[in-house]
Amino acid sequence: MTVRDQTNLVTRDRVYYFRKKVPSDLVAHYGKASIGLSLRQFPDKTDAKREARRLADHYEAEFAVLRGQLTAPLRPLTADLVPKLAAALEAHVLRADDAARVDGLDEAAFAEMAEATADELQACRAAYGGGPNQISLETPSASIHDPSRLGPTSRRLPRVVWIHFSSSSFKVGGRNSSPFCALRNHSFGLSCISPSASVTSAKTAERSSGVFPHQ
Description:
four-stranded antiparallel beta sheet, 8 strands, two-stranded antiparallel sheet
């Protein structure tokens, strides 16, 4: 993905996208750290830049309105308001979920997920880059372990993950590491890995672990 000379304009596969970072104090409201919209209807760069600028102004104004609401004086809750607010919140969450399911994900959302997944894979490569349990995550299609180190059954599976469930953390090369990052199956088709796992040597994994094949 290439970032153009206009801050909020991004191009991918010859399609322009509007991207704008959500201020940290409003992330909870939007439920995401950035806003992405496809500008496929604006194939010309000049038109795309103009639309991106318009959208940026629109969201800046929206941010200002939301901040004004956040700083409004708070009123104490009464006992009769609590169940009403709970019901309203539940209805809001369900409506948002319904809308997301009906609308689906646009190309900008998929591009954002792909970027986030690439960052996670890079972090995983750094975390698992040393020690006897070295793992290769260079490409999504590659096996996480070298197939030559696994048993004959596993070699027939194109994408497998050997894990030994234990504590909420694990060790790689004798060092404690953070929980394994989730690999999004909607991005690359990889099975999600439990954050409560410890990576073991291939020999131990063959004996005591399960196989999570590509689905």
